Amino acid sequence: MLVTARADEGMWLFNQPPREWLRTRHQFDPTDAWLERLQKASVRFNSGGSGSFVSEDGLLISNHHVGADAIQKLSTKEKNYLQDGFHARKPEQELKCLDLELNVLQSIEDVTARVNAAVPKEADAASAFAARRKIIAEIEKESLDRTGLRSDVVTLWQGGAYHLYRFKRYTDVRLVFAPEQQAAFFGGDPDNFEFPRHCLDFCLFRAYENGQPAKVKDYLRFSPTGAQDGELVFVSGHPGRTSRLLTVAELEYLRDQALPYRLGVLKRLEVLLGVWSARSEENARRAKDELFGVQNSRKALDGRLAGLLDPELFSAKLKAEADFKARLVGKPEFAEALAAYDKIAEATKIQAAQAVRSLLLEGGAAFNCESFGLARTLLRAGDERPRPNGERLREFSDAGKASLELGLFSEKPIYTDLELLSLADALTFFAAQLGVRDELVQKVLAGKSPRDRAAELIHGTKVRDVAFRKRLYEGGASAVAAANDPMIEVARLVDEESRALRKVAESQSEAKQQAHAAISRARNAVLGTTGYPDATFTLRLAFGTVKGYEEDGKPVPPFTTLGSFYERAKEMNHRPPFDMPGSWEKRRSRLDLKTRYNFVSTVDIIGGNSGSPVVNRAGEFVGIIFDGNLQSLSWDYAFSDRQGRATSAHSAAILEALNKIYGAKEAARELVNGRR
Amino acid sequence: MLVTARADEGMWLFNQPPREWLRTRHQFDPTDAWLERLQKASVRFNSGGSGSFVSEDGLLISNHHVGADAIQKLSTKEKNYLQDGFHARKPEQELKCLDLELNVLQSIEDVTARVNAAVPKEADAASAFAARRKIIAEIEKESLDRTGLRSDVVTLWQGGAYHLYRFKRYTDVRLVFAPEQQAAFFGGDPDNFEFPRHCLDFCLFRAYENGQPAKVKDYLRFSPTGAQDGELVFVSGHPGRTSRLLTVAELEYLRDQALPYRLGVLKRLEVLLGVWSARSEENARRAKDELFGVQNSRKALDGRLAGLLDPELFSAKLKAEADFKARLVGKPEFAEALAAYDKIAEATKIQAAQAVRSLLLEGGAAFNCESFGLARTLLRAGDERPRPNGERLREFSDAGKASLELGLFSEKPIYTDLELLSLADALTFFAAQLGVRDELVQKVLAGKSPRDRAAELIHGTKVRDVAFRKRLYEGGASAVAAANDPMIEVARLVDEESRALRKVAESQSEAKQQAHAAISRARNAVLGTTGYPDATFTLRLAFGTVKGYEEDGKPVPPFTTLGSFYERAKEMNHRPPFDMPGSWEKRRSRLDLKTRYNFVSTVDIIGGNSGSPVVNRAGEFVGIIFDGNLQSLSWDYAFSDRQGRATSAHSAAILEALNKIYGAKEAARELVNGRR
């Protein structure tokens, strides 16, 4: 089977680290201080991604592709920081991001018992969901009021446990340094998820408090020598989602329906944005970040689907489930767990039956543009905010208010032409998916073609004006209604069905969570309580070794070098996306070409880990995760270190580039010294 | 409504030209000789496309993108004629195409009565289809034996008429001249279907007979001055398919199911081939022609879907059908025609229900690679050839034998890596569409992942060896079985269901044809017999005027110039696909930049018309059709000259480029003189 007995598998909770395994396998015994420092130096990008503090003056490092969203929002046609890079020599030159929120985990509290106690035993799924939502909102609000910290109750083990995570929030975050995107993402989509690789995928931000660089106690010492072949390394970051504990019924749904459908949506968008980008440089600039996201997801999902279509992986899943069930059969104490498999299959079937309409309406695929998202948030804020905290849709809870408002009132640029393109395409997709005879389609299109209707809505709405949004948000439902904004009225048109679909989906999720909780209990009883829950964008600790692998009978060494970077560009005739930035062509002679550039390790990661620090036993920063290879894409379902690898940029290359390519001496010095 | 009363609409049959219209509207009365010359100078590319003779020595002109398939097959990594262009100064340098077949229409005979008489009145659809297939094969064979000419019975008016078309075949066709693809297809996919436009989309071939340049009596005189603003022009070519006479039920099926589904397939392929092409120059070369085809279809289908989603177009269709039905109601002689609408709806429903499996199996989308196509042809040839001519699958009829063998024994290059890529993707699609639990999917995958199974089949099959194909084709079914070739055995595995699906589809098509024939008779009785049948890749005559249009309130002039070509490249910073070939950069100063380059006209065309000559009243060649604008894409369903335009390259630009950019004096001289 794929998972060898000895693989360094796992995305471990910081409050349940794999001490025994580390001790026996790697003779390493992390102290509480070691763990706490790593935890508190780890930063979550709320926009999706990870990072870490690397100086006591709030300097933090992440991937360029994690920061790209923020950099894109700071860029214009004239000042294209995404393309040309950015470099602040002094704090006063640092650029404040428009709506970036960073979270740093301060504490974890197990609230499973309190959450479950509030859910009546015999309640149906919908009532159980409502009760659970209520108690979670209550716990979060209580914690926020008491500590002032962002407080999220997170679901672990698919519903087996509920933990309260408290975060320090930073919302004044400033851009310090970014290389050109062409250096950060050299090789573009063709080289994405491949190895050997040559990407300077990092950028630097600084967290501010009260208008001053934040003073942080816990940060990582930056290692100028960086990762070594064969050494044990750790990754602390925020893996977004894995599906390793799903039942076979859930995996089959993903394999046969959900993934193929989502891939169709992604490929449609990829063609749309690609064609539009090709028509002008400015189009390309405007769509770049979104197009990257689409291509990245497409490649990841293609890889995940290939994983599920691999009979080796899938038959192991079938066997594991059958074996485990066999151990439960005939034991009354496990009857509930056994029955849980059928409940999960049933709930999956109900969700599958409405999946297309759900994706189109509640998922917003029928209206894929920023204006619609803003319009719906305004509409729902008007309806939700007067309700008691525990009865609102989750995103409108008191605990989430600050984050919601940060996004809603962001001054980020929204491009009318891209909005038009996206909405016309989305409405076409909507009509094609449900058929023009569908009543809701007819109401939405209002007798017009998708293109004409999109133009009418995008030109007619005022939601792209922040002052308008503030006015409606503060004025509540009556102000929203009085505005008679066409986009908001479209959001209203679909809201009843959209909410109904969401309610069914949430009820079935609740049913699944209860079933998974039963399975989880049985697993603990039969197999013991060791292990780690599936990833849920919560902080995790993973570990492994720096190590190459074999492919098509040939060894793939663990490191690339700055020298092989130049070779790769030459081999591809510098044809985009294998064209080097001018800075690298000009200053080649300054570089030590033997400097390690990118490297692979057996650390268990997944999307969301991007930007995670790679640290050695001494807790030093030796590299930064930015990708996995193609063979790692099936890690969503099962880990294997046979060929799957995590890909990082090496700390030595980061220093070399800052010093010799970019002349960013101040930043380099701060990294090495850990202070300004 | 879209179609103004005065639009020059129509793709007219050469045996039913719109004489009256031309006389009254344009004061033009084409003589029989004028028509016959144009007909016999018109050339059909069997690979899909049109062209025309332009010299008595067999020189013929078509689009570069029509010839690209043949040019691609002549190209290698070292001699990339598609990219670099080609130029033979003497006949002995001309390159023989590997499997190109040209057809020149010699005569048309109405065989409707004979075909219908052979179909028993009360037969069910399946028997009626078999009877019709039998009589058609008989007529074709008889004609072939008697005249030696390729003889095709073509279906017109959706089944309202059957005509016997006799063609002279040319299979020794040699490449004379091709510009660089970057000149022919400047602006690539982004500018495709757009106007203003700057494409030198032509190439020259020569037809040979008995090893010598063919002597042709009917060819077009090439006009050095070319098309003029406002003049009446004619287009003689082979529009592939229009759907203007479909019923509302058929159009709704296209709009809500068929087109969205096919677009999904195309976008999937576009991403696959695009990503693969980006990984190396040689990949890009190998996939180029196929990628162009996919992108071209995608853009066309996106446009057609937009047309059907335009309420103006669709409500006109609804109204026209309702109005016509109203005229039939209550009249016993039209009862059959009225009932025909329901029969068509019913047949469409049956076809729709099996459309996905049909496309995957009989359409081959589950195995999208050359090797599978060859394997299936070998398998079926073994089974079909021993049967009586009239009972075979149509492509194995005696009349089609020569064309079938030309393709089957072609020495064209087939690239293993591209085959692997395509088949692995297709098998993934197959599994995702039907689900892994599907019995046929399981049999085809044989317990392997799509990628592993694709590798096994592509590496295991011998069908890419022409000698092997010849041996199996000649050896028949027993030789095919004895070969035990893995790809042929996969074709056998799916053949039973595939044939069953085809049988249903063909029976339902027969049912539709009979129904359409009834509607056609009623239409003739009620509205008169004027008009033209939907396009079916048969030779048609269309006409219109050279004329600009208005877009977003601004006039779009009818001509671009060589000067505006340079401006466009500059405006796009010469970024691919807006990079000019070196030849054009170097020799700019030689050119008369005021020379007309591309132009638009109101001529009614569609895909398949590519390469059609544009001729003036004098019957002179004044340009070559290569595209339509975005607004013309809905012409599949309804013609409108409000904004829709056909796009051509101007004859003056062709001469200017041959003389001054390419130094191809011999070719230019032959064009002007009409002889070598």
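qc> The domain at 12-101+171-238+537-627+640-673 of chain B is CATH 2.40.10.120 (Thrombin, subunit H).
qc> done
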